[in-house]
Amino acid sequence: MSADVETQQQESTNGTSKFDVPEIELIIKASTIDGRRKGACLFCQEYFMDLYLLAELKTISLKVTTVDMQKPPPDFRTNFEATHPPILIDNGLAVLENEKIERHIMKNIPGGYNLFVQDKEVATLIENLYGKLKLMLVKKDEAKNTALLTHLRKINDHLAARNTRFLTGDTMCCFDCELMPRLQHIRVAGKYFVDFEIPTHLTALWRYMYHMYQLDAFTQSCPADQDIINHYKLQQSLKMKKHEELETPTFTTSIPIDISE
């Protein structure tokens, strides 16, 4: 990648040489504001979280590279033409499509198989949540708000019934890496565009988000609030105001209720 592409690296430590484990590179979309920091691509964050968890377990060394898709560097165009991130590179092999990336992590990357828990109930539960956010932002009517609220309530009830830290148990899995970025977009974009807030009475859901906010896998991969907002502004053909572009990035991670451990 060219020098104007920001690179962050997570390497094995504690006496383990990075050469003892495979190095995986994940190319993600950069911010649409500054072209360097992490952008608000949901799939990019989801796979970043998956791979970060594996890097924490020392099964891989992870390198994350951001690419400004508004001005992609020449070597990116040469190697990947019109392909958009996320792109996973494993020992020179580029994996380009979301489903193929998931399959590659599960089947080819050390430790990846353990992330992909089989749970049809949870898979069905979190399905289509993001679509309800997009409808709410476009339609801006009470019915769409209600549909999203109903879905969030189902997730809350599931978490309350299982009484576990994460969706399938007390260990994170692929479903958490899929759900939490979407909850963050709902929280940040919902508040900004339609004054939507996740109700405080959904205590199991807030407790879940609290636990996720404590994890490096989430905080290190999470885009700034401004980038989430601009992501949807661009979809609605709205432009950021100059002062918004110059704002210091903020990250909403507070919890509006008291969480008793």
Task: Walk me through this protein's architecture.
It is found in: Membrane. Pfam families: CLIC-like_N (PF22441). The chain folds into 2 domains: 21-116, Glutaredoxin (3-Layer(aba) Sandwich); 117-260, Glutathione S-transferase Yfyf (Class Pi), Chain A, domain 2. Helix content is 49%, strand content 10%. The protein has helices at residues 42-56, 74-80, 98-108, 112-115, 120-126, 129-139, 142-162, 174-194, 203-213, 216-219, 225-235, 242-245; strands at residues 7-10, 23-29, 61-67, 87-90, 93-95. It has a 5-stranded mixed β-sheet. α1 (42-56) crosses α8 (174-194), α6 runs antiparallel to α7 and α6 (129-139) runs parallel beside α8 (174-194).
Give the low-pLDDT segments: 1-16
Order of helices and strands: EEHEHEEHHHHHHHHHH
- By CATH reckoning, the class of the largest domain would read Mainly Alpha
CATH architecture of the largest domain: Up-down Bundle
List the strand order in the largest sheet. Answer: 1-3-2-4-5
Helical content band: 40-55%
Provide the CATH topology of the largest domain: Glutathione S-transferase Yfyf (Class Pi), Chain A, domain 2
Helix count, DSSP H or I runs of 4 or more residues:
12
Using the CA coordinates, give the radius of gyration: 19 Å
- By DSSP, the count of extended strands is 5
Mean pLDDT over the residues = 90
- Mind summarizing the main beta sheet? 5 strands, mixed
Indicate the proportion of strand residues.
Answer: 5-15%
Report the end-to-end length measured between terminal Cα atoms: 44 Å
Number of domains: 2
Question: Structural class from helices and strands?
Answer: alpha+beta
